[in-house]
Amino acid sequence: MKALLICEYREGKLLDSSYELVAFADRLGADRAMVLIGSEAEAPRVNGTVYLADAAKYGEYNPDLHKRIVLAAVERENPDYVVFVHSSYGWDLAPRVAARLRAGQVSEVVGVVDGKLEVGLCNAKLRRTVTPKSAKTVVTIQAGAFSPAASPQGSPRIERIDLADTASALEFVGYEPAEQKEVDLSRAEVIVSAGRGVGKKENVAVIAALAKAMGGELGASRPVVDAGWVEHSHQVGTTGQSVSPKLYVACGISGAIQHLAGMKKSDFVVAINKDRDAPIGEVADVLVVADVMQFVPALTAKLQK
Amino acid sequence: MFVVVCIKQVPDTTQVQIDPVTNTLVREGIPFIVNPYDTHALEEALRLKDRFGFRVAAISMGPPNAEATLRKALALGVDEAILLSDRAFGGADTLATSNVLAEAIRKLHHQEGVGLVLCGKQTIDGDTAQVGPGIATRLGYTQLTLVDRIDAIDHLRCRIRVRRKLEGRHEVVEAPLPAMLTVVRELNRLRYPAVPMRLASQEAEVKVWNNEVLRLDVNTTGLKGSPTWVSRIFSPEREKGEIIGDGVHDPAGTAKLLIDKLVSKDLLPC
Ligand SMILES: Cc1cc2nc3c(=O)[nH]c(=O)nc-3n(C[C@H](O)[C@H](O)[C@H](O)COP(=O)(O)OP(=O)(O)OC[C@H]3O[C@@H](n4cnc5c(N)ncnc54)[C@H](O)[C@@H]3O)c2cc1C
Ligand SMILES: Cc1cc2nc3c(=O)[nH]c(=O)nc-3n(C[C@H](O)[C@H](O)[C@H](O)COP(=O)(O)OP(=O)(O)OC[C@H]3O[C@@H](n4cnc5c(N)ncnc54)[C@H](O)[C@@H]3O)c2cc1C
Fold first, then answer.
1. Do B241 and A286 touch (CB under 8 A)?
2. Which of A99, A284, B7, B217 lies in the 20 to 30 Å Cα band around B51?
3. List of residues 6+ apart from A219 with CB closer than 8 A
């Protein structure tokens, strides 16, 4: 069994998520080859074949050209699986490759059970295993679901891929930075979120103060955003941001599936809730049963000491 | 020119329950809603109608009761609503689903020319994010995913310029029409149906196209046309978190316990 792993390269750098692809292939027990559209200096440190195409020539992303490069590598390797990370890159490119190969696709795989692919369902409330029936299968893996081995070591054997024809119907106009006032919670290490349980707009400041004392960012559940207490870019959940901090503190949040879907990848979850049976308790590592407006100021005060 | 919006009826996942005995989804009695992302696709189509005078068709593949979903679209102001429903379409995976939707779009195209297809970024039940791209590939349309702004549509040159939402930045691209866009929530804010419209929608017709109309090879639809199948659905195992201290009567002491715990896990500097 063989897996062709498609690395991701952004702003001149190989992304670490590329090593998560390696971890996935190992879990599957598959031989692997990799594809990088980037630069040789950034080639992944792994043993085995890495197909390299030059990003200076083909762009960091051009769907037409990147698809053809991946297909060229598929032709040479004849893999059973073609694997991407479920990022905006894999999101856009994987289905194009699947359609061309007439392959089944399984999106956002979170695990491997007895060689079957495991995927979340209904905002991660359920899991399912999926069995592909096509000869080749295109897979995207959830970012963070497969942890790579400590420090990658190895020296790749580089094989170059060059396209004769670089015509593309798409015209890249440029990049725009994310809006200034938006916070990018996806990179935060600590997030402290306010839920409806904080009671009113003025109380959000108390949660923000805790976030600051912990060196983190402020997050929020949707009702808090809808009520206009907090700006939308802070919203965590299916219709907000997906986050994966080391520490997530949920203050007065019940733990609805849509919220959980956005924060289930957090390493350690603390919930502060007056209801000991709130569903958030099921994903929390630690639950503090208390009134947020009494407990949070006490916690902040202790931290500031 | 037609703008076609693909909308899916999904169970309201906030209310989805799991049968503790069989460990499967309890489907009875769960209310259905329009997939939330699709409501933004619908809104955008209606804005394009206001701006450019395009006609809007909403299509949905599903069981007969998905008609309710299309009626909501009529209440918002779409010109045509078509339900794609046939026993032969049941049990479809994403490939088989995009086959049926693509065929319906092709048929609409023969009626009056389709310039744009709008889909949600993903659904909240299957959430594979493959149906839109599947349609684009099958029809040979330009695929533009994760769109959070439509900058310009130039009929004469048959070009569209959009902004795509990526990690930490946006990408602006220009591409030829016809195009299939999948949209994110940031694209727009939803309108609410005006009352007269809502009443009118009760009268308006939801067309039903079955496979006698679409004439697809039944080996490419439904369960038969599906290269992936779901073998098992189960709920992930979770253990309840540990309750620490007595936050109600001793906030300060509990705060200390929590800080010690976080420090021991290396989650806070000492
Ligand atoms: C299509 C769709 C998309 C959605 N997307 C999102 C999303 O992206 N993000 C999101 O968060 N939600 C989303 N939701 C909403 C979601 O279903 C829940 O309604 C929401 O997450 C609940 O927010 P909450 O936990 O803050 O409020 P509630 O559910 O009202 O919970 C409040 C909690 O605070 C506790 N509490 C109350 N008072 C106190 C107190 N004084 N001290 C301590 N605890 C207290 C209560 O016990 C309760 O557990 C979405 C819903 C739908 C239908
Ligand atoms: C429990 C469960 C598990 C499943 N697992 C898989 C699986 O692993 N692999 C697989 O291939 N299929 C799977 N399916 C089938 C899949 O959900 C259906 O094929 C579905 O019709 C389309 O996939 P999606 O919901 O993931 O849509 P997505 O690809 O996430 O939808 C994107 C957009 O496409 C449009 N769209 C999607 N479906 C329709 C429709 N019926 N009518 C109109 N527009 C639509 C909407 O605009 C939507 O926003 C599963 C279904 C269920 C219920």
1. yes
2. B7
3. A185, A191, A192, A193, A194, A234, A235, A236, A243, A248, A263
**Amino acid of residue A238:** T
C-beta of residue B253 within 8 angstroms of C-beta of residue A299: no
Tokens of A125: 């409330």
Kindly report the CATH number that applies to the domain delimited by B2-220. 3.40.50.620
Which chain B residues are closer than 8 Å to A99 by Cβ?
A: 133-134, 137-138
* Complex ipTM: 0.78
Q: What is the mean pLDDT of chain A?
A: 90
Q: Cβ(A198)–Cβ(A252) under 8 Å?
A: yes
CB distance A218 to A192 below 8 Å:
yes
Which of A105, A127, A160 marks a domain boundary? A160
For chain B, domain boundaries: 2-220, 244-270
Give B262's contacts (C-beta < 8 A, 6+ positions apart): A247, A268, A270, B268
Chain B contact for A186 (CB, 8 A cutoff): yes
Residues A139 and A190 in one domain: no
Residue B22: what pLDDT? Answer: 61
Give the pLDDT confidence of A148-202 residue by residue, as tens digits: 876 778 899 999 999 998 888 888 888 888 765 567 788 889 999 999 999 999 9
Candidate from A91, A276, A290 with C-beta closest to B146: A91
The pLDDT of residue B4 is above 80 = yes
Q: What is the mean pLDDT of residues B134-162?
A: 94
CA A169 to CA A68: how far, in whole Å? 13
* Distance set, CA A179 to CA B108, B186, B209 (Å): 38, 12, 44
What token pair was written down for B245? 């201290």
Q: How confident is the model at residue B229, as a pLDDT?
A: 64
CA angle B185, B187, B190 (to 5 degrees): 75
Domain presence at residue A169: no
- pTM exceeds 0.80: no
Q: Please give the number of the atom of ligand 2 that sits closest to the Cα of B135.
A: 34
| A257 CA → ligand 1 middle, Å | 9
| Neighbouring residues of A24: CB distance < 8 A, sequence distance ≥ 6 | A3, A5, A83, A109, A112, A139, A141, A146
Q: Are A136 and A229 found together in one domain?
A: no
